[in-house]
Amino acid sequence: MPLVKKIACSLALLLAASVVVGCGTAPRAMSEQAFAERVTAHEARSLAQRDEIAARLLRRLEYRHAEQLGMGGTDEPFTYEVLMLSSGGQFGAFGVGVLQGWSKVQDSSLQRPEFDLVTGVSTGALIAPFSLLGTDDSIERIDQLYREASDRLATLRGLLFFLPKQPSFFDNRALADRIATELDLATVREIADAHAEHRKLLLGSTDLDLGRFRIWDVGPRAVHALETEDLSEIHSILLSSASIPAAFPPVDIDGVLYTDGAVAQAAFVGLDREEIVQVFREFTARNPGAAMPKLRFWIIVNGFLDVDPELIRLSWVPVARRSTEVLTSYGMRVTLRHMQFGVELLARDLDTQADFFYLAVPHDLELPLQTERLFDPQVMQVLAAEGRRLGRDPSSWRTEVLAPEIPGSALQVDGVLPEAR
Questions:
Q1: I need a labelling partner for 23 at 20 to 30 A (CA). Which of 42, 136, 397, 402 fits?
Q2: What is the mean pLDDT of the chain?
Q3: Cβ(276)–Cβ(82) under 8 Å?
C-alpha cells in the first residue's frame, strides 16, 4: 500500500531527525493529578456515551417499527442497516466509487439502503457524513472532493519539513478549509435531521495523550452546532480523524491532541455484541408481537488486503516501512475476521438473520506508477472507477473472511479442507 509506505518512511525520517537534532519543541505541561482526572473522566464519558448509543439504537428500532405499522405494514421483520467505512488515505476514492455504483443496482433487495448507523475512520470519516445522508447529490459532493484532491491539500512545510520542531511534514490548513466548505450549515442540518430520526453517525479519532480510541457521536453535536451556529467542533472532529500521523499535525480539541483514528482501529461498529443483543431483546419485550429485526453489516475497505511481494533491502528504513505495511494489512484482516464472527454470534443469540458483507480493493488492480504524493489524482481516478464497477455488481460483496494466518487469506481460496487419511 503506497500510502503506508510513504508514512512509514516519513516516520523513519522523523526518528532519524530526532536522533540528530534532539527535541525541538517544548513539552506540554499538565500536573499528575489533572492528568489522572482526565483518565477518569474519559472512562466515565465513554461509559455514558455507550449507554446513550444503546438507547438511541432502541429508539431507532421503535421508530422503524412505528413507521412500518403507520404505512399499513405487517409485523414482518425490518432490517437494521450498518455501514462501516475504513481508513485508507487517497484510497477513499474507492469507497466513494462503491457508493456511487451501488446506487445503480436494480435489485431492490440489494440496492444501497438508507443506513441506520454509519461509522467512519480517517478517510472513511470524510465519507461517512455524506453516506448517512445517502442521496446521490451528497455522494456526488464527496466524490468531487476526492476528484479535486491534489498536492494543494497537502503542502510540505518548507525545505526543513522533517525537523522535530515541525508539528508535521504537511500543512493541514487547506484540508481543514475544504472540510469546512463541504460540511456547511445545510449539511449539518441534514445530519441533525437524521439524528432526530435516531440514525447514528459515529466517527473515530485517537486520543494521543491517553492512547485511547475516541468515538465521536456526531448527531447531538450537529444539533448543538445549529443552536450555536458554530460548526468548528464538527469540522475539527473530521480533521482529527483524517490526520495521518507525521503527515498532518494532531488536532487540538478542548486541550486534547487527537490524530488519525486508524492508529487504534481501521474500522468499528460502536457497540459490542452483548449490548446489541440486549437492545434488540428489549425492543421485542417492549413491543409484544413485533418480529425480531434483521441486521446487515456492510464494510467498505479503502485499501488492499494483501501486500505485494517485495525483496526487502537489509536497511532499517525499508525494514521499518515493510513492517508497518504488513502490520496494517493483517490488522485489517483480523478486524474483518472478528466482525464476521461477531455477526454470526448475533444471529445465533437473537435467532434472527444477520448478514456480513465486505468489499476491498482487488489485489490484482493495477494502479498508475506511484509517486510520493499523498493525493495522486491518477491513482484516485482508477480507484474510483474500480469502486463504481464493483458497486454496480452485487456479487462483488464477499461474506467469508479466511483466517489471517492462512497464506493468501485475502484471496479467494477453494478446497481448503484436507483429504482424510
A1: 42
A2: 84
A3: no
pLDDT at position 123 over 50: yes
CA–CA–CA angle 211, 213, 5 (5° rounding): 80
Q: Are 117 and 217 in contact (CB under 8 A)?
A: no
Write out the E strands in 246-402.
251-253, 256-260, 294-301, 354-360
Closest CA to 361 of 388, 341, 343: 388
CA-atom Rg of the chain in angstroms = 22
* Inter-CA distances, 310 with 11, 307, 322, Å: 20, 9, 9
Q: Which residue has the cell 492528568?
A: 35
Q: Tell me the C-alpha distance between 243 and 271, whole Å.
A: 24
Single out the residue of 405, 272, 241, 263 nearest to residue 333, CA to CA.
405
Going by their DSSP bridges, the two strands 294-301 and 79-85 should be labelled as: parallel
Grid look-up 467505512 returns: 85
What was the pLDDT predicted at 356?
96
- 259 to each of 127, 171, 267, 299, 358, how far by Cα in Å? 17, 14, 15, 22, 26
Higher pLDDT, 202 or 25: 202
